[in-house]
Amino acid sequence: MKFYKYTGLGNDFVLIDNLRGNIHIDSSIAKTMCNRYFGIGADGIILASKSENCDIRMEIYNSDGSIGEMCGNGSRCFAKFCYEKNLIKKENFTIETLACVIAPKLNIEDGIVKDVTVDMGLPKFGSKDIPFKVNLDKVANYPIQVDGKDYIITSMFMGVPHTIIFTDDVEDEKVISEGKKIEVSEYFPRKTNVNFVSIINRDEIILRTWERAVGYTLACGTGSCASVVAGIIGGYLDSKVKVHLRGGDLSIEWNKGEHVQMTGEAKEVFTGVYEI
Questions:
Q1: What is the chain's Cα-based Rg?
Q2: Residue 149's domain spans which residues?
Q3: Looking at the domain assignment, is residue 158 inside a domain?
């Protein structure tokens, strides 16, 4: 089975062409492939499959073997992969995911995708959408307590569940120790991604993310979108924000009531053949 390794600001994925439908991946195989010692090594596996409603379908397996609804950094890698490998022969196309339909815009120079802007859809704030234990129309600036510590959170569904905490402390130790506990706390029936955000100014933030089913990640596209949205509805940020992640920068733009736009690079790292 031929595979391609891609990275979106350090968030890395194994991309596979499955348009013929002859490749079968399950939880166990995905975990082994993602293993950085006994497999290829990745945060997730993404298959390009046929779609009945869109130009192409994106199937995601997280590194723990669970199925992913959608992935921001993965979607940029996927769009670049589909165009440069001629799976899609047009610059504007639609991608089916379990969460929503994605419509990437490619910045192409000499046939090479330099960066990708992805329409990430609308954020959903209700408890039923996230889901969140307490029944609220909008989970914003809400107090919770996890492992004896108090937090003020904003949560939303941005393709996947995200929880945002604004803080001056985004040190690695804090993100890891507290993020893993919040992820699996009783407030979130389907777990949550946890984003710790430090505001530099109204158009610039630092973001560190504990990613559901993955761990401490170098970058999170949906987390960047959710964090900017949370900052805007909280009155802290303007409509266009640069997000500094461990693996690089993303540009996020959102006007209330409109779809969130995410722009960033994606790179092919290597290719190979994997025996299942």
A1: 18
A2: 142-258
A3: yes
* Residue 220 annotated in active site: yes
How far is residue 60's CA from residue 51's CA, in Å, rounded to a whole number? Answer: 14
What is the mean pLDDT for each group of 10 consecutive residues in the chain (276 residues)? 97 98 96 97 98 97 95 96 96 93 94 94 96 98 98 97 97 98 98 98 98 94 98 98 98 96 97 94
Residue 155, domain CATH? 3.10.310.10
199 part of a folded domain: yes
Please tell me the total count of domains within the chain: 2
